[in-house]
Amino acid sequence: MDFTKYVDLLHTKTLFFCNSMRFEDPLDSSFWNVTSKPLRKLIKEKDPSIPKGIENLFNVNKAITYANCWHMNKVESAALWKLYLKSNEGIAIKSISGRLKKALAGCPHEVYIAKVAYSNNHVGTPTHKTGKSYSTLDAARLKHPSFSHEKELRSIIIENQGSNGIKIKIDLDILIQKVYIAPKTSMWLKKLIEGVSKKYGHNFEVKESELYQNPFD
After folding, report:
1. Are 42 and 121 in contact (CB under 8 A)?
2. How confident is the model at residue 158 (pLDDT cuts 50, 70, 90)?
3. DSSP secondary structure letters along the chain
4. 125-133: average pLDDT
5. Could you tell me the pTM of the whole model?
6. pLDDT digit string (tens) for 95-117?
7. Interatomic CA distance for residues 138 and 112, integer angstroms
8. Which of 12, 63, 140, 168 is deepest in the core (most CB within 10 A)?
9. Least confident among 34-38, 158-162, 210-214
10. Band of the pLDDT at 127, cuts 50, 70, 90?
11. Burial call 1-16: b when 16+ CB within 10 Å, e when fewer
12. What pLDDT shows up at residue 177?
């Protein structure tokens, strides 16, 4: 995130769950892979109005899905630093799924935490009668394989809020293990982040990105 979003995190002590209608991927949190191409073609030939109805269902599903997204990796991602920052001046928060779950324990909404699956195949919930069902939650945790570089873990809220996002109060000291400053960032930003964090009552360890470190330093 950029520095201003980090300050907002400290000030509000909230995690932002974005409505999936605002995601760049238009298929995110929809039932895009439920019906095969031959079946969609057959439906369209028999009744041209049905595909539009299915599309409306997709949009309803997206409208009630809110997600807070994390990248899972043992190392930093050069691609994600570039995707999420408009300049070199930004930060990344390091945590683990157990801390995230604990930080959200007092949330008044029901929150699901799940890894995102990147597949063209049906990813549903096993049932006794039909073999698999496909729920709104299943749609929120399935993305096209072309997004597999994200290695995403999602906290998901399924509710009809009618808003662009939901802010959830959390304990930042539980959530945050370390704060990393972006590669090639000037050292003054590290000192600023340390100072601002302390001003809000936190003593997070702030580390420089190790992405482009000289191995001989």
Report:
1. no
2. very high
3. -BHHHHHHHHHH-EEEEEEGGGSSSTTTTS-TTSS-HHHHHHHHHH-THHHHHHHHHHHHHHHTEEEEEEE--SS--HHHHHHH-SSS-BEEEE--HHHHHHHTTT-SS--EEEEPEE-SS---EEETTTEEE--HHHHHTEE-GGGGGG-EEEEEEE----SSEEEEE--HHHH-SEEEEPTT--HHHHHHHHHHHHHTT---EEEE--TT--TT-
4. 51
5. 0.84
6. 999 999 999 998 999 999 999 98
7. 11
8. 140
9. 34-38
10. very low
11. bebeebbebbeebebb
12. 96
Length of the chain: 217
Q: Measure the CA–CA gap between 183 and 127, rounded to whole angstroms.
A: 47
Both tokens of residue 96?
Answer: 């683990």
Burial state string for 156-191 with b = 16 or more CB within 10 A and e = fewer than 16:
bbbeeeeeeebebebebebbbeebbbbbebeeebbe
